[in-house]
Write a structure and sequence with these properties.
The complex is a heterodimer of chains A (about 100) and B (about 120). Chain A has about 100 residues and is an all-beta fold. Chain A is about 0% helix and about 50% strand. Chain A has no helices and 10 strands. In chain A, a hairpin with a 4-residue loop joins strand 6 (about 60-65) and strand 7. Chain B has about 120 residues and is mainly beta. Chain B has strands spanning about 5, 10-15, 20-25, 30-35, 45-50, 55, 65, 75-80, 85-95, 105, 110-115. Chain B is globular, with a radius of gyration of 14 Å. The chains are: A mainly beta (about 100), B mainly beta (about 120).
């Protein structure tokens, strides 16, 4: 891979807000994707950032800082169905290892 | 309906046998990809193809082979040379360069291969 780093696991409470960070090597960067993957299923697309700043889409937002090689996925008003792995991937489709998010009632 | 399909969903093989996983898409996408996912791990790129009759190795190509004779199809063969073939295999496609700078990758449902 090309050194995409994200936390392995996180835990949050239903109704709360959680931020999942992702860092990557900046050389040859074109854009960054976030995917959600429930256990045993294929990943589904959440967001794509190519410019700096925050992109909001309902309860999910994604932020990018190209100069810092940094992105985060922000999930608000957490629901039990948000328990999943969240994968960040850069253009050329190189994936991080994913962050398993556990939601507590 | 347009989409990307993989079959079968579950596949069992004996050690030492080659096995071919199918991936078909009717989205008219140029680019297709194969990933492997192990329990609790992210996706690792095996092979990808950006155009018919051309493909490149990903990070973990050893023990695998692919072909891209048709735009719609990108089969993956897991050979007996692959030391740990038991895994979840995901195929994906994207429009490619013709789709512009931003084009989302679409995933098939995956094939879970178990080698006994």
């Amino acid at each position: 891979g090309q050194n995409i780093d994200q936390p392995t696991e996180m835990t949050a409470t239903e109704g709360a807000i959680v931020q999942i960070n992702c860092t990557y090597q900046t050389s040859g960067f074109n854009g960054l994707f976030w995917y959600q993957q429930h256990a045993g299923e294929a990943p589904t697309f959440l967001s794509y950032n190519v410019l700096d700043g925050l992109e909001e889409k309902g309860r999910f937002s994604s932020f990018l800082s190209r100069s810092k090689g940094y992105s985060y996925l922000l999930l608000k008003e957490l629901q039990m169905k948000d328990s999943a792995s969240y994968l960040c991937a850069r253009e050329k489709i190189i994936f991080g290892k994913g962050t398993r998010l556990h939601i507590l009632p | 309906d347009g989409g990307i399909t993989q079959s079968p969903k579950y596949l069992f093989r004996k050690e030492g046998q080659n096995v071919t996983l199918s991936c078909e898409q009717n989205l008219n996408h140029d680019a297709m990809y194969w990933y492997r996912q192990d329990p609790g791990q992210g996706l690792r790129l095996i092979y990808y193809s950006q155009i018919v009759n051309d493909f490149q190795k990903g990070d973990i190509a050893e023990g695998y082979s692919v072909s891209r004779e048709k735009k719609e199809s990108f089969p993956l063969t897991v050979t007996s040379a692959q030391k740990n073939p038991t895994a979840f295999y995901l195929c994906a496609s994207r429009p490619g360069l013709a789709g512009g700078l931003y084009n989302e990758q679409f995933f098939g449902p995956g094939t879970r291969l178990t080698v006994l």
